[in-house]
Design goal:
By secondary structure, the chain is of the alpha+beta class. The chain contains 6 helices and 6 strands. The chain folds into 2 domains: 47 residues, no CATH class; 80 residues, no CATH class.
């Protein structure tokens, strides 16, 4: 893939085009070094790209990658296994925007893929809640998942 050689619109030198008809050094001086108000966090900071600071750009554009990587490390599963779990969403309702990992045998050390159950925050809370546990277990049984009753620990004040 060939590079485009241009006459830079700012300095007039004949160099490789970087962007917007400018060479790299003129582009960097003109665009990259400007302070802007980040459109996400509203801080006055050096522009990274798309009117975002570097932190917001990385957070917004690599959020799924970061989530998958963190879950992969925490549960000692491959990225492919995490992707498959997250895409399926909650086994009860299918919601996949935020997932919780539930261990069927209640052993946090047992990260075998057969022991892991993906639930949305609501169903995960219901499974651990004294008030909603039985109906949540019944819902799981109706879709073919056997889960032992969770021992509910009541916090003492």
């Amino acid at each position: 893939m060939g590079r485009t050689i241009i006459k830079c619109l700012k300095c007039g030198d004949i160099k490789e085009q970087h962007a917007k008809g400018l060479c790299y050094s003129c582009y960097k001086k003109e665009y990259r070094q400007k302070n802007i108000i980040c459109s996400n966090c509203k801080r006055n900071i050096k522009r990274h790209t798309k009117d975002l600071c570097a932190g917001c750009y990385n957070t917004l554009n690599f959020k799924d990658y970061t989530k998958n990587n963190n879950l992969s490390k925490k549960y000692n599963l491959s990225i492919d296994q995490i992707n498959k779990l997250r895409k399926g969403g909650c086994v009860i309702c299918g919601w996949s925007k935020k997932i919780h990992i539930h261990h069927k045998d209640q052993n946090k050390e047992n990260n075998n893929i057969d022991n892991i159950l993906v639930l949305c925050p609501n169903h995960h809370y219901a499974l651990h809640s004294k008030d909603y546990q039985k109906e949540t277990i019944l819902e799981l049984k109706n879709i073919g998942i056997i889960v032992p009753e969770v021992i509910v620990q009541i916090k003492k004040s």
